[in-house]
Each structure stands twice: as C-alpha cells, then as structure tokens.
Design a protein that fits this description.
Growth Hormone, Chain: A; transmembrane helix; transmembrane; MFS_trans_sf; Sugar_transport-like
C-alpha cells in the first residue's frame, strides 16, 4: 500500500515550512552580520555553543510541559522566542556582538521549544510506513526555503546596503514567524500523555540490549558534524567572497540540488534501502571536502556544497526514521516518546557541543586555510561512524518488518476474499 500523509501531517509541514522560511531569510546572515561587526571565529563559535546549551536545557525541562500540558503552546513559544531574537538584533544592531550569550541562549531556547514539540507531534502523526515520506517532504521544504530565502536576502542586502538590508530581512522574518503562530492554531490540541519521568532519558541506556546504546553514539557522531557545518560553511563562503549575494547564490544552488535529492529520496526511498543508503550517503558526504584541498575559492566551495546536498538525503532520511522507529518498538516506548525524544536530542547535543568546542579550541591556535580544511575533513567524516553504528540496528528493523509486512498482506488478502464471498451471497 502506498504511503500517504493525512491532514494534520500536512499542516505540521506548513508550520515547519514557515518556521524554516523565517530562519532561512535571516539565519543564514546572522553569523555574517556578527562577523562584519567583529571578525572573530571564537565569537561565532561561542554564539553557536550558547545556543546548544539552551537547546539542551529547553528539551529537558520543557519535556514535562509537552507531556503533561498543551504541547502546542510549547511549539508557539519556540516561534515567539525566535521572533524576540530577531527583534532584539534589530534593536541593538551592531552592539549585538557584546550580547552573544543572551542572544545565543534566546535563539537556542527558541529552537529547543520548537523542535521538541515538532519531533513529538511528528512521531504522533506518522508511523513506520510513511515516516520516510514525511522526512523526505521535510527535507524538500527545508531545501526549498533554503534555496529561495537566502538568495532574496542576499540580493536585498547587496542592493540596499547593510543599514537598510539587514533591518528589512529581520523584519520580514518577524512577520513570517507571526504567520506560523497563527496557522499553528489549526493543529489539533493533543491530550496529555501521563507523567513526565525526569530520569528516563538517562536510565534508558541501562538495559544491556537497549537499542539506544547503539543509536546514541550514532547520533553523537552525526551531531559532531552538524553543529559546526550549520554555521561554518556559510561563513567561509562569505569570508572568501565578501559578498552577501554570492552567499545567497551559493545557498540557492546547493539547496536546489538538495531539494531535488530530498524529493527523490522521499518518493522512492524504501525501508530495505536504509542500511546501504545511510552508509553510501555518509561516505559521499565525507569525500565532498576533497575539492577544498586544492584551493578554497567560490568554485571549490560550490562543488563541496553540491556534493553534500546531493548525497545527504541518503544519510539523513534513514537516520532520522530509524531513530524515531525505536520509539515505536512497543507500547511502553510509545508512551515514553517525549522522554525518548529528549534522549535522542541529548545524543545529537553531545556531538554538536563537542564539535563546536573543538572548533573554538582550533581557532585559538590557528585560523589558516589548511587548518580549517583538515578540521572540516575530520568532522565531515563523522557521519560514517553514525552509519557504521546504525548498521546492525537498521538491519534488525528491516528483518522484523518482513514478517510484519507478510502478515499485513495476508490479512488484507483475507479481508478481500471475505468481501468477495459476501458479494457472491444472494
């Protein structure tokens, strides 16, 4: 049976799309904005690090709210905090470099509140059959926003100048965030799910056969790369070109490739492809850095970005679906989905914070091109470890689905046969 998405899944994708659009409009250029005020790699690193601290704290403490209260209000809080962040940057302008920690904590809290709720609701409105389809659409929408919005922002900043361009794109982001909050009220209010267990994100690792013992180091390896690549690649493109429009063009091209790739992955990716696809995608992403060893210029950075965009869905789609499938192993896991979502985030968080800390340590020592490229090579290969860790778990998930699928097919055939007999009766 072909996988489909229901109305609530589609509405969740709309809210996600607006949140992504607002972030893509301004988020790509926040680090550039800070860099132009003070060209300091360490400052950008600490800004990213402060966000990760707030994300972790928000996931853990807001978990009680999401499980026992109205989780949709937590989603709206995340969008509201993101709006507050951009309003604050508008207000304090270039003085923002003196408020890196409060700004980073605000933006991190926004991300934490939004993504905690999004991940829990995403689990509730999808199942193992349509999870890859949903993740494909998430990647498709995210890539579409990342394709158009940064280019438009870069064009505005280049045309109008810093003094007018940055305030305009930050203001537009505020308006889109407001639209996301309004549309979120059409998402159904979901009932409380029992009591939040504060210790479960830690005690879930105790059982010797717990799948999280495999998944957690895989997630940490993924986070090691993602935490740094999220801010460093775009910043390097700007430093090399010193032109916001060229950065916008870069995101336009790489996101267009990612959009097509995620569309194909979401449309045709099968559960049986997960193990091989994950490994192939991770290896290709690791090799993407090779052009940068020849020279760091716009052309080689573009080749680097295109290769990552082309192959990342092969890794991202099965990695996300497989870790969320662990939450649906049995009824007990389903009832603990909030705590397990927190645990999943902690795995990513450990990796992201370690990667950013390593970057801060590196730039205290050296900031030349060779050091940066070697660093990108090392952390860019981290997803290979993720794929390696996940291989036995994914293969086990596939093996379990074969008899389940055969049973479902037999059940459907039996129902069809019964309906045929009933039609034959006078």
């Amino acid at each position: 049976m072909k996988a489909r998405l229901d109305g609530q899944s589609l509405l969740l994708l709309v809210v996600y799309g607006l949140f992504s659009l607002a972030n893509a409009l301004s988020g790509t250029f926040v680090n550039v904005f800070l860099w132009k005020a003070k060209s300091d790699y360490s400052l950008i690193g600490w800004f990213a690090f402060s966000q990760q601290i707030a994300i972790g704290l928000m996931f853990y403490f807001a978990g009680k709210w999401v499980k026992e209260g109205n989780k949709m209000n937590c989603l709206r809080l995340g969008i509201l905090l993101a709006g507050i962040f951009y309003a604050a940057v508008l207000w304090i302008d270039k003085e923002a470099v003196h408020y890196i920690w409060p700004l980073g904590l605000t933006l991190g809290a926004a991300s934490g509140a939004f993504w905690l709720t999004f991940n829990v609701v995403y689990f509730e409105v999808t199942d193992a059959a349509n999870r890859d389809l949903f993740n494909g659409w998430v990647g498709f929408i995210g890539s579409g926003c990342g394709m158009a919005a940064p280019w438009a922002s870069g064009f505005l900043i280049s045309t109008l100048g810093d003094s007018r361009g940055y305030p305009i794109i930050f203001t537009i982001s505020l308006v889109v965030f407001v639209a996301a909050v309004i549309i979120s009220f059409w998402l159904h209010k979901r009932p409380p799910e029992g009591h939040y267990c504060w210790s479960l994100p830690f005690t879930s690792l105790r059982p010797p056969l717990s799948p999280w013992r495999v998944a957690l180091p895989a997630l940490a390896s993924q986070g090691l790369r993602d935490g740094v690549f999220a801010f460093l690649v775009g910043l390097i493109v700007y430093i090399v070109t010193t032109n916001e429009l060229k950065l916008g063009n870069y995101t336009l091209i790489t996101s267009a490739v990612a959009l097509a790739s995620f569309y194909v992955a979401g449309r045709f990716f099968k559960v049986s492809y997960r193990a091989k696809g994950m490994l192939l995608g991770a290896m290709a992403m690791a090799l993407a850095v090779v052009p940068l060893f020849f020279q760091i210029k716009y052309g080689t950075l573009l080749a680097f970005g295109i290769m990552i965009s082309l192959f990342s869905p092969l890794f991202t789609v099965p990695m996300t679906s497989s870790t969320f499938d662990i939450m649906g192993i049995d009824k007990e896991s389903v009832s603990q989905r909030v705590e397990l979502t927190v645990l999943r985030e902690f795995g990513l968080l450990i990796g992201r914070m370690a990667g950013i800390a390593a970057f801060i340590a590196l730039v205290q020592w050296r900031t030349n091109n060779t050091a940066i490229v070697v660093f990108l090579t090392v952390i860019g290969a981290a997803p290979v470890l993720s794929a390696w860790f996940m291989q036995p778990l994914v293969k086990n998930q596939n093996a379990k689905r074969v008899p389940e699928a055969m049973g479902d097919a037999a059940e459907e055939a039996g129902e069809a046969k019964m309906k045929h007999k009933l039609k034959e009766q006078p």
